[in-house]
């Protein structure tokens, strides 16, 4: 019983990270029909922004030593700037391009960022200690929950609530929802297309930063491709959740986290190395049952 | 106020407009009629900036619109009600209407306009909190017209307002368009597939077929409908001649 509860907390923790990453991916897909493979690299940048550029194996924190109230906005600013620059240089000239063209362009952005990190910080993984005080467990009866996991879950829920409020209650949020539904019609009504897309990139960057910080503080390791697996699972989450639906992205993220943790916990030991293969089999099963994803949206219906 | 001069538009290899020219004067109601696929929607989309002509020019009050994005053209006072309605389905009626006001600088006037538009469409006031995709076809048509009026346009482009609506609703839609024209000093350019309703209201009529303007005259001169029929179906000598040059051009391409 305690084992199961422990696993459920782990699943909520991992699901939170996937859901946050999936929201960043889903937001851009909704507005731009862009499947942004560079999202994982936005996550990597958020983590690397904390340390002093060097080829050393042990990372020396720079921005990472600042007080959190200054550090978090600074890192967010850096990631948002990178996201906005990639929009201005790569995606803006491709506004009338097809969705596959945009996706391929995002691969290019991804490689450029990864190689940029390689040139500045070196290829070897680095150890970095962010918020090391937070790994103390909280005891709930017999249940031991690391404080960091609680923070991860709470931060994720808070960000989701903030994003929902933004989208429902503010004029820019309403603009974004209108543009996500029918971009051209929104433009005909005077909504500035480039502004809305820029806003989506910025929010996507903020969500990526949250993933960077939470993920790094849990794993303590940096590598130039650290964001790639997170982004990969985020895509899976977006697809099974229902392309174009933010709610779907969140549901998909938590579901994928849950499946991965449960497989990790309950697969026989000798099969555990194939955990991801089982996870993706599960994804295929979901898509066989619900090809449009868990939450149906217009974006998909239109394509059929 | 609007001058469209010899515009050509292609979608890939399909040539949708092969040199369309038309003009609309301040305060007029001009109607563009033609069969399905004639290029009516493309003409309106080109004026609103949704598609870019590769030849020809469009000018609003003397200022060229070439290279402007749709939202910039909207800010100049051109509003398009596209075919197929394009309601934002997950947004409420109120949100759909609000989207149209965000570009406006005259904040003070917006609340008044919002009230006025809702009194033109009492049905929308009743459904103010419903998501757009729950509305009936007629209600959606009213919503997109109300939304377009809230951008405070000088020139309203309406693409097939009667498509898929019951005749009674269509009458209502026209009544409202005419009322809005009176109160806002609107200029209207309306696309329709059939001419019978529009002959009553329009000042001038253009007939378009396979990407060419086939006929242009005042509604008064076209009242008997014969000339329109000939141009529409391509029975006239002019139309046949245009078709012949078309085929020749296509062969050359």
Describe the structure.
- The complex is a heterodimer of chains A (304) and B (253).
- With 304 residues, chain A is mainly alpha-helical.
- Chain A has helices at residues 2-32, 39-48, 68-91, 99-121, 147-169, 171-181, 183-188, 193-219, 227-241, 246-266, 275-289, 298-303; strands at 126-127, 137-140, 143-146, 221-222.
- Chain A has one domain (2-231).
- In chain A, the strands form 2 sheets. In chain A, strands 1-4 form a two-stranded antiparallel sheet. Chain A has a two-stranded antiparallel sheet with strand order 2-3.
- In chain A, a hairpin with a 2-residue loop joins strand 2 (137-140) and strand 3.
- In chain A, helix 6 packs across helix 8.
- The two termini of chain B are 35 Å apart.
- In chain B, helix 3 runs parallel beside helix 6 and helix 6 (137-150) runs parallel beside helix 7 (167-184).
- The longest helix of chain B has 18 residues, at 167-184.
- The model of chain B has no long low-confidence stretch (mean pLDDT 88).
- Chain B is an alpha/beta fold.
- Chain B has helices at residues 40-48, 70-75, 93-99, 107-120, 122-126, 137-150, 167-184, 196-201, 226-233, 237-252, and strands spanning 2-11, 14-24, 29-33, 55-60, 63-64, 78-81, 155-159, 187-192, 204-209, 212-218.
- Chain B has a single domain, classed as P-loop containing nucleotide triphosphate hydrolases (Rossmann fold).
- In chain B, 41% of the residues lie in helices and 25% in strands.
- The relative contact order of chain B is 0.17.
- The A-B interface holds A 171, 174-175, 177-178, 181-182, 184-193, 298 and B 48-50, 69-71, 74-75, 79-80, 82, 86, 88-91, 95-96, 98-100, 102-104, 147-148, 151.
Distance N terminus to C terminus of chain A? 45 Å
Shape of chain B: globular
* Largest sheet: number of strands, sense, barrel closure of chain B: 6 strands, mixed
Average pLDDT number of chain B: 88
List the secondary-structure elements of chain B in sequence, H or E.
EEEHEEHEHHHHEHEHEEHH
Distance between the termini of chain B: 35 Å
Name the strands of the widest sheet of chain B in spatial order.
Answer: 6-7-8-3-9-10
Beta-strand residue percentage of chain B:
15-25%
Helix content bin of chain B: 40-55%
Strand content bin of chain A? under 5%
What's the β-strand tally of chain B?
10
Which outline of chain A best applies? globular
Q: What is the helix fraction of residues of chain A, given as a range?
A: 55-70%
Number of helices of chain A: 12
Q: Quickly give the structural class of chain A.
A: mainly alpha
Question: Largest contact between protein chains?
Answer: A-B, 18 and 27 residues
């Amino acid at each position: 019983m305690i084992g199961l509860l422990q696993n459920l907390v782990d699943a909520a923790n991992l699901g939170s990270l996937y859901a946050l990453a999936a929201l960043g991916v889903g937001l851009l897909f909704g507005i731009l029909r862009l499947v942004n493979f560079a999202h994982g690299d936005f996550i990597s940048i958020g983590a690397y922004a904390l340390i002093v550029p060097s080829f050393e194996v042990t990372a020396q924190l720079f921005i990472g030593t600042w007080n959190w109230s200054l550090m978090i906005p600074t890192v967010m600013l850096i990631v948002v700037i990178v996201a906005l620059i990639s929009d201005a240089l790569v995606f803006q000239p491709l506004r009338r391009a097809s969705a596959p063209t945009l996706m391929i362009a995002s691969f290019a952005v991804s490689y450029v960022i990864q190689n940029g990190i390689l040139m500045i910080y070196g290829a070897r993984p680095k150890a970095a200690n962010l918020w090391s005080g937070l790994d103390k467990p909280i005891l709930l009866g017999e249940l031991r929950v690391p404080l960091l996991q609680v923070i991860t879950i709470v931060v994720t829920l808070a960000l989701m609530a903030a994003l929902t409020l933004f989208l429902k209650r503010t004029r820019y949020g309403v603009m974004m929802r209108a543009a996500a539904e029918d971009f051209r019609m929104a433009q005909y009504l005077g909504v500035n297309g480039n502004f809305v897309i820029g806003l989506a990139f910025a929010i996507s960057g903020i969500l990526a930063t949250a993933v960077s910080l939470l993920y790094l503080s849990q794993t303590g390791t940096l590598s130039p491709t650290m964001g790639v697996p997170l982004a990969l699972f985020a895509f899976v989450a977006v697809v099974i959740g229902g392309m174009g639906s933010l709610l779907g992205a969140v549901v998909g993220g938590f579901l994928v986290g849950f499946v991965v943790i449960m497989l990790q916990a309950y697969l026989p030991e000798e099969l555990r190395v194939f955990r991801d293969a089982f996870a993706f089999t599960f994804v295929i099963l979901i898509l066989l049952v619900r090809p449009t994803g868990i939450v149906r949206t217009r974006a998909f219906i239109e394509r059929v | 106020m609007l001058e469209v001069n010899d515009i050509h538009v292609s979608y890939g290899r399909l040539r949708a407009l092969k040199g369309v020219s038309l003009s609309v004067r301040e305060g007029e109601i001009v109607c563009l009629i033609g069969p399905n696929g004639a290029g009516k929607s493309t003409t309106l989309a080109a004026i609103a900036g949704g598609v870019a002509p590769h030849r020809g020019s469009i000018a609003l009050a003397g200022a060229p619109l070439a290279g402007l994005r749709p939202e910039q053209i909207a800010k100049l006072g051109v509003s398009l009600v596209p075919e197929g309605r394009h309601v934002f389905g997950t947004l409420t009626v109120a949100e759909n209407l609000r989207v149209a006001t965000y570009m406006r600088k005259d904040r003070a006037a917006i609340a008044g306009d919002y009230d006025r538009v809702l009194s033109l469409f009492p049905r929308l006031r009743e459904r103010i909190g419903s998501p757009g995709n729950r509305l009936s076809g007629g209600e959606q048509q009213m919503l997109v017209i109300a939304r377009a009026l809230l951008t405070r346009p000088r020139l309203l482009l309406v693409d097939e307002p009667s498509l898929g609506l019951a005749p009674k609703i269509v009458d209502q839609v026209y009544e409202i368009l005419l009322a809005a024209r009176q109160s806002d000093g609107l200029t209207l350019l309306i696309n329709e597939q059939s001419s019978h309703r529009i002959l009553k209201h329009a000042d001038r009529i253009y007939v378009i077929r396979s990407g060419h303007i086939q006929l242009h005259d005042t509604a008064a001169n076209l009242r008997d409908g014969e000339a329109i029929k000939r141009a529409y179906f391509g029975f006239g000598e002019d139309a046949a001649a245009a078709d012949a040059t078309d085929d020749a051009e296509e062969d050359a391409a």
